[in-house]
Amino acid sequence: QVQLVESGGGLVQAGGSLRLSCAASGGTFSYYNMGWFRQAPGKEREFVALIYRSGTWTQYADSVKGRFTISRDNAKNTVYLQMNSLKPDDTAVYYCTVHSGSGLTTRPQNYDYWGQGTQVTVSS
């Protein structure tokens, strides 16, 4: 059983930055591909970014490409999401998640464990 705890959310003005962190416990972190998803009110949960277990491959949603950066520190069992040039449309609850399979996927139903989420609100 893997536990995930996100932090770093908050209220920021458009154009600002936030850095989300997700601390993992209960498993072998370096074995897992990690992802960030988000869910805005009234909308489905959507893919934001993923990172391969070794950190050598990343993938982003088109809506955040060039503005967000996912990274990980396997020694600290932590994955990060650096968010720059934030827009009001980025307002959502952001979730950290684990994919324990061998492939890379952007489908939320393929992820095994989820954190409780952290709220990001971007004001205009």
Largest sheet composition: 7 strands, mixed
Tell me, briefly, the overall form. globular
Helix count, DSSP H or I runs of 4 or more residues:
0
Q: Quote the beta fraction.
A: over 45%
Q: H/E element string?
A: EEEEEEEEEEE
Structural class: mainly beta
Mean of the pLDDT scores? 96
Unreliable runs: none
- Number of DSSP strand runs: 11
Distance between the termini: 40 Å
Cα Rg: 13 Å
- Helix percent reads under 10%
Architecture overview:
By secondary structure, the protein is mainly β. It is globular. The N and C termini lie far apart (40 Å). The mean pLDDT is 96.
Write the layout of secondary structure elements.
Layout: E1 3-7, E2 10-13, E3 18-25, E4 33-39, E5 46-51, E6 58-60, E7 68-73, E8 78-83, E9 92-99, E10 113-114, E11 118-123
Parallel strand pairs: 2-11
Antiparallel strand pairs: 1-3, 3-8, 4-5, 4-9, 5-6, 7-8, 9-10, 9-11
